[in-house]
């Protein structure tokens, strides 16, 4: 049920992408002032050169939090540029944010989301076997959904997402070359 709600929010948010630049920024939350939410806590990372708090992911995050009562969304704070350290800073910040919320709210449900470089950041924060830091495995039970858009790690013809991955959705335009990724 919650997975369907997140997918519905994703679709609703996609329809709003054109209006993202005029949206008000999401309120920020200091890492040490964690509030536990009975809905979901959305942690998301923006794409390369997208402005802080005015990214495409903001629209989807707003849609999710609007559809799921007592939910909150917070953007990962990192440069999101093409510098050599941007990705590493984002990965470390995402891991810290995910871990901080779990430590403060061990029963809290989390949605992780990223676009472009942000998808790379989120993906590697949760599943990078070569990383020197990563989230503790115990946190995985609290992650109810992972949404990645335009992930630069995704390779055409790479295949599916593998075994043991619960409900997995790929949303793409049928007329797009990207649709053939399935």
TrEMBL record:
<protein>
    <recommendedName>
        <fullName>Cutinase</fullName>
    </recommendedName>
</protein>
<dbReference type="InterPro" id="IPR000675">
    <property type="entry name" value="Cutinase/axe"/>
</dbReference>
<dbReference type="Pfam" id="PF01083">
    <property type="entry name" value="Cutinase"/>
</dbReference>
<feature type="signal peptide">
    <location>
        <begin position="1"/>
        <end position="23"/>
    </location>
</feature>
<keyword id="KW-0378">Hydrolase</keyword>
<keyword id="KW-1015">Disulfide bond</keyword>
<dbReference type="GO" id="GO:0052689">
    <property type="term" value="F:carboxylic ester hydrolase activity"/>
</dbReference>
<keyword id="KW-0732">Signal</keyword>
<dbReference type="InterPro" id="IPR029058">
    <property type="entry name" value="AB_hydrolase_fold"/>
</dbReference>
